[in-house]
Amino acid sequence: MKLPVTMTINGQSYSHEVEPRLLLVHHIRETVGLTGTHVGCDTSQCGACTILMNGQAVKACTLFAVQADGAQITTIEGMAKNGELHPIQQGFWEKHGLQCGFCTPGMIMAAAQMLERYPRPTEEQIRHQLEGNLCRCTGYHNIVKAIQWAAEHMAAGK
Amino acid sequence: MATASVERLIGKSIKRREDPRFITGRGSYVDDIKLPGATWAAFVRSPHAHARIRSIDTAAARKHPGVVAVYTGQDMTGVNSLPCGWDLRKEKNIPGVVQDLAMVPHMPLTADVARHVGDPVAVVIADSQAAAADAAEKVKVDWEVLTAVTSTERAAAGDAPQLHAGAPGNVAFRWEIGDGVATDAAFKSAPVTVKRRIVNQRLVANAMEPRACAARFDPATGELTLWVTSQNPHVHRLLMCAFVLGIPEHKVRVISPDVGGGFGSKIFLYNEEVVCSWASRQLQRPVRWTATRREAYLTDAHGRDHVTDAEIALSREGKILGLRVKTTANLGAYLSTFAPAVPTFLYGTLLNGVYAIGAIHCQVTGVFSNTTAVDAYRGAGRPEACYVLERIVEAGARALGMDVAELRKRNFIPKFADGFQTLVAVAYDSGDYGVALDKLLGMFDYKGFRAEQAAARQQGRLLGIGFSTYIEACSIAPSKVVGALGAGAGLYESGKVRVHPTGMVTVYTGSHSHGQGHETTFAQLVADELGLPVEQVEVVHGDTGAIPFGMGTYGSRSASVGGTALHMSVGKIKEKGKKIAAHLLEASPSDIEYVNGQFQVKGFPSKAVPFGAVSLTAYVPHNYPEGLEPGLEETSFYDPSNFCFPFGAHACVVEVDRETGQVKILKYLAVDDVGNVINPMIVDGMVHGGIAQGVGQALWEGAVYDDASGQLVTGSLMDYAVPKADMLPMYETERTVTPTPVNPLGVKGAGETGTIAATPAVVNAVVDALAPLGVDHIETMPLTAERVWTIMQTAKAAT
Ligand code: FES
Ligand code: FES
Known about the structure:
The complex is a heterodimer of chains A (158) and B (799). With 158 residues, chain A is α+β, with helices and mostly antiparallel strands. Chain A folds into 2 domains: 3-78, Ubiquitin-like (UB roll) (Roll), CATH 3.10.20; 87-155, [2Fe-2S]-binding domain (DNA polymerase, domain 1). Chain A has helices at residues 24-31, 87-94, 104-117, 123-129, 141-157; strands at residues 3-9, 12-18, 50-53, 56-59, 72-74. Chain A has a 5-stranded mixed beta sheet with strand order 2-1-5-3-4, sandwiched between helices. In chain A, a hairpin with a 2-residue loop joins β1 (3-9) and β2 (12-18). The longest helix of chain A is centred in the last third of the chain and has 17 residues, at 141-157. The radius of gyration of chain A is 16 Å and the shape is globular. In chain B, α13 runs parallel beside α14 and α16 crosses α17. Chain B is of the alpha+beta class. Helices cover 27% and strands 24% of the residues of chain B. Chain B folds into 3 domains: 19-24 and 492-638, Aldehyde oxidase/xanthine dehydrogenase, molybdopterin binding domain (Aldehyde Oxidoreductase, domain 4), CATH 3.30.365; 34-143 and 208-261 and 266-299, Aldehyde oxidase/xanthine dehydrogenase, a/b hammerhead (Aldehyde Oxidoreductase, domain 3, Alpha-Beta Complex), CATH 3.90.1170.50; 303-477 and 642-798, Aldehyde oxidase/xanthine dehydrogenase, molybdopterin binding domain (Aldehyde Oxidoreductase, domain 4, 2-Layer Sandwich), CATH 3.30.365.10. In chain B, β17 (420-421) and β18 form a beta hairpin. Chains A and B meet through α2, α3, α4 and α5 of A and α1 and α16 of B. The complex binds FE2/S2 (inorganic) cluster (2 copies). One FE2/S2 (inorganic) cluster (FES) sits between chains A (98-104, 135-138) and B (208, 261, 515).
């Protein structure tokens, strides 16, 4: 049995028939073909699959695709606008906030919501807010700096 | 036309050129690759740590909708064991062998006995990943469950169950290094000796990208393309073709695209890659597989797992007179690709550390157990050596009542620029160990800290500081040397520089980035040497179809070994360019020099031809030197003459919560000397990540097996504590620079220093913090709150 789902991803509407057990992350990666959202675990720990769904950062591996019916979704591919990097993306680049890049999309999406909640986060807030996102390469030092850079530039841009 | 740049690029923190694709979600990892008509493999794995296969019933799985094929080990006729690339045998004159390595077979799908939880016994291949997974559950294996042994200490005990007919008593090998007689003598006459058991627990690499592969056999051309998460695609191809599948190497192309971290775990040839490649040839369709995290825990090679008894002999003045080390190393159920090298030549040879030691003797026993195979994990043997030495040195200082920094200073090998012969075979390249510690002590007020610590103790607070003055061997490795030690491979690297007619440059390296930023560092290196803007240089790696050959990335070798190969090719390009320029300038080649991106008559910058004009002439050779080949492309293979030996000094300050046992890192300081640095930002990043992994081992990480059932208890990210952002501090990092004389770039290696240094620094700090409670040693990591709390309670009970 397949069920119809329609969702808007990065401003574009997608309608498909999917198995009810299909995870949202696999839907995004396999059905829709946006592979920037990654899968790093099977227990909802790593955060590599983090996306924005109706404005909230969620782990796309913990939802079924059918649960996202009617949702507005932003993935990492939707962060840059008109060829301009989002300040968080820029921050990760400027501050060397990534090495292998596998955790990076999830980190950036988690940071997007974090900076909405805390436009000028302290180091402690950043570290605490990243609790659901694992990085094995950077030791987090430069991820913290990247998010601080983004916060400063987003505040300046407002 | 190409433009010239005069700005030096080496030593600049230029932003990474690979980042735009990663930060926009356009990286291309193996699992991202789409292959039309692909099938998916799902592996049926042993749920038991040790069990004989009576029979396997695949009938129900075969009938499952979407299933294309089901194979067991018995179907894989003509397929050989996964090879172990390191031999330890007396007849091969490998030094130090006491008992020959038992080369036990490791079949891609085991057909007789499963020897660890997760050992694959069958594979289901289906049209979709879901169908393959569903059908795999329908494969029925009739198991005869056998007793299992997982503990390192018990694996070779007389009553332990036997894993392999070819390895009686589960002993894989016995090996030694150093001078037993001299060491015994040193201990006999020493006024102070300290003996400690030091356990280096088993770890899981946990690269964030799980392993994956996709094999596509093309029946029309007879070519097999394998996309695989590999740190060394050529090594994968060679091992698979020559040893396992017996297929022609030139008909196989291995592509390792973007790789999401490796830390050693993606060096090795694994069962799944072999099975998918073989099945793709059988089915003439693409076959792919991506590990779940659970599979990663059960099958990615683990790291460390040593139990060591270490003894140090000291004079009353704190001189290290002797070091005696006995280690049991758990290799797991099978021999992974480079497993025997890790607890032997990558371990024993580093026990001299940065100290002038009177005598050293180290004995190692490798054992098999019903656990996942153990192989190189970030640092590989060197962190284990550093951990033993830095822990026992501080234990010695405590026994003497001497300051831990002072004892180190009294024993440092004095500064040297070209060679120091250790007591354990290797000769260091260059070193200035005291300077690194001095610099570290200059980064904070050590005396002031000791006063603060004393005051805190008065209030019942537990503050501690721990040091680690480490050495590592990297730039792996001189082929002749490793060959004599048992390596089945040479460990040179290739580097090709292709100058295009317009003066644009593509470089091809056999090194392969899995996060290290090679596309930036190598472009920076080549652009600097050619005096070109970095935008004019592109780096290609990770594809056996594009690269001449390559040994890949591990052992902190890429910049030093891979970089030198590129440096050599650039040199050849310049030499040829001089001939072309001389012809155009009507001068003699010996009168031409290459300066700021142009070939000029020595001392006459106005009599010059730019790089771009020379490259164009090389491809449009109308006005061209007689007898010179057209084209401008050079390949070099660099085989280092020695390892390089980075070193440094780290310190960690902790506070232990008296009530909960929680360890909080208050400060982490590091001085690393990795020789010359090409991109400081990238090097700092690697140091940070290395420290995080070292701290992780000290405080939280550990692969735990239940010895009764043989189950991996920490088999998910829920159970295995990969450090999170809020568990770690900011790191204060500095550098000293002692260039290596081994290679012309003077670079050593930076990928593993942090991991090597951090673990003992943190544990030493906790021991120091607990000193007022009478604690003078901690045997086992990780120092979780529970373990520290228990140590505190035991100490209290004893007083
Ligand atoms: S894939 Fe790990 S949290 Fe979603
Ligand atoms: S950059 Fe590799 S896991 Fe974060």
